[in-house]
Amino acid sequence: MLRRNFSAFSPLEQTIFYFCDRVRRKVQATSDIGMQNKDIYTVSRLNSEVRMVLEQQFQRIWLQGEVSNFVAAASGHWYFSLKDSGAQVKVAMFRQSNRMASIKPQNGQQVLIKARISVYEPRGEYQLLAELLEDAGSGALQLQFEQVKARLLAEGFLASERKRPLPAMIQRLGVVTSPTGAAIRDILTVLKRRAPGMQVIIYPSLVQGASAAGQLCQALSLAYQRNEVDAIIIGRGGGSLEDLWCFNDEQLARLVAKSPVPIVSAVGHEIDVTISDFVADIRAATPSAAAELVSSDQLHLLERLQRLQRALVQAQRQQLQRFAPKVAQLAQRLQARHPSRQLQQQQQRLDELGSQLLRRLQQRLQQLALQQASLSRQLSALSPAKKLQQHQQQLAQQQRLLGRAMQQRLQQQQQRWQLLLARLDTVSPLATLARGYSISFDEQNQVITNSAALEKGQLVHTKLAQGSFVARVTATER
Fold this sequence. Notes:
Helices cover about 50% and strands about 20% of the residues. By secondary structure, it is an alpha/beta fold. Its main location: cytoplasm.
């Protein structure tokens, strides 16, 4: 039944039908084996396997629709429904993805998302997990660019008075870019030619894609935290508007504006302009131009180094001439109080102290040996083994005495009981009965001791030494 007109269904419906058919066949197969071999699903297991089938069957898809029921949770995650005129589907966009989103969706807004199909297992709900979100309207990127630029301009981040010049001598340069892109190769080529002594520290990051802005922020934050460079170049080579869009990220722009060292923005080509160019201290047309800005010509540096070297030599000579008399005076004082003399006295004192320490240690060892011998003798005299042996002998003797006393006591009690039994037998009514006597009882089981208590015709029970009998009274005598 599930296979009828199967090609007419959507891929999602085909997957669900395929999974249901597989479950039905498995249940049917286990039913034929017997009740004891049934593979019974739990709800949690069913939802888990449905989720795995959907996630394995479908790759990431692009979907366009209208936002409704948008909720920004306290955890930072976004939840909303994406609908069109005939249906809707629930969407979840987690914090690590939505913080890279270029917009925050509003109810009624048309958006384009890239998402994975999954199942929320606790409620068994089919949903989409969004990874990218864009405004589906025309000119959305340009509109967003202008909005970010206007906000930064209003807050003063684009003001010219906050721009800082580059240091006169940059010894360490930080570069935030892709470690495998053309931009880093151009920068290193220029620096090798113009400033081979400059140390370059690369803070690697993606420079294109949904996660590029976040990685750029992380790389800049790492550079600020380590505080090891004199200036920073951030940028990449040319590309389309979408390729360069990560450099228009507002969070990245604010981070660039708060840099503790001057920043050069070198994004794309001459005609490319990004938000990072506006907030950086200096904008370079290309990464190569940025490398030229941060480096001085090698010949100029060499001339300056030679001048500084000559000045240093002259200053050293003057210092030597000024300190020469003082050095001679200190040499004479040192000769009078040569360290070797002090060392000899200290060595002799050390030998004396060592000998004293050795003697005291030997004396202490002898005292401890005597104490140990004395304690060993005391321990041997007070050894618990001897006392234990004495107590064991005493215990064995007491056990023997106790056994004999118990035997004697038992014999005495047996003799006493035999005597008491003999006495009891003499006064026992059974013995009397054995000599030919009998005991009679009335109907109330009372012993009859007087014939006057009997009436004619009354039943009397008589007990003999061997058995008993019942008689009826015909006559009585006093």
